[in-house]
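In this section we walk through a basic example: taking a raw amino acid sequence and producing a predicted 3D structure, encoded as C-alpha cells. The instruction is simple. Fold the sequence below.
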Amino acid sequence: MIFWVRLTSDFGHFNGNPMAFPSPSTHFPPLLPLQAKVGLVAPSRWAAREDMDVFARKLAQWGFEVVIHDQCHLRDGTLAGSDAARAEALMDMFADPSIRPIFCVRGGTGATLLLDRLDYDLIAANPKPFVGFSDITVLLNAITARTGMVTFHGPMEWNFLPEQADERTENALFAMIMEGEDNRVLSLPDVEVDVEGVAQGPLIGGNLCMLQTMIGTPYDWSAQDGILFFEDVEEPLYKIERMLTHLRLAGKFEGVRAVLVGEMVDILDEKPDLDPAEHTIYGTSLKDIVRKHVPPEVPLAFNVPCGHGRHLMTFPVGASVALTLQQGQSTMVVPL
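The resulting C-alpha cell sequence is shown next.
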C-alpha cells in the first residue's frame, strides 16, 4: 500500500548553456514537468517519520505532489522492513505510471540485499528518474547496467534536514532532473585539481565501499573509457587504501579517462581528538594514497561535491559527459 501526501507550491527553473555533444549510449528517463508526482521509498535503513515529513515539505515547495510508500514506515532491525518488502516497494514505485521520479529516503545498509530481487525488465519498461547515494550506489549502478537507463547520484532526506540543508544541493538536483535545456553545464570551481586535463565518457561511480562490494558479482561495473567518481565517509585511511588497492588489482583504473574524488568526510585518521594510545595514524595522506593507485597521466581532482558533505551535486550515472579539469575553471557538461 501507498501513503499519499498532497502538497503543492511553486518551483524554479534551470537555464543551462547549450553546446554540441554526441548522443550517449545510455538513455535518460523522461525528465520532470511542472506538478509531477514523486515517490519516496526506503531500500536501505528506516528513517524517522518527522524527517520524511521535512523531505516531503521541501519537495512540495518545488511543486511536486508527494507519495510516501507505506513501506517507509516499516522497521526490521536497522532496515526499513524485510528484504522482500523493500524490493516490492521499489517495484511498486516503478510500476505505478503516475509516479515520475523516485527518491530514496535513506542509505546506510541493505541495498545490496535487493539486487537479485528486482525486476529489471519492469524497470526498463517504466523509465523514470531514480535518485539516491551512499548505500544506494549499488542500485544506481545495477539499474543503469541492466536497463541502460541513467540514474541519479543525488540527495536524499538527510540532505534536506535543517542541520544539513544547502541551497546548492537542492538547486543542483532539480536543475538535473527537471525539463529544461538540452545540456546541463555543471560548474566545479572549488574542486582541487591535481592533474589537469579533459575527458569524455560515461560517468560511473558512487560510494567507494559499495563500489568495492559489487566487484566480482553479477552486478559488477566498469569505468573503462569512462569517468570514475567515488566518495566515502567515516573510514580510516588504511581501509580506504585497501579498497583502492582492490579496485586497482581488479583492473578498475585501467582505461579510465578521469577520476573525481568526492569529499571524504570524517576520515578517522584526521580527527584531532583521537587518543594515540588507542589509534595509530596510518602515516600517509588521502591524496598520496589515491595517487599511488590512479595512473599518473589520468586527469584527477579532489574535494568534488559528490559525497557526504553539505554540498552535493547530482551526477547522472551512466550518462556520457564532457569533463574539463582546470584549476578554478572545472566544468562537467551533461547532454540530455
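Looking at the output, two observations stand out. The chain has two domains: 2-6+14-182, 185-335. The helical segments are 49-61, 83-95, 120-125, 137-147, 167-177, 208-214, 237-249, 286-293. In the next section we compare this with other chains.
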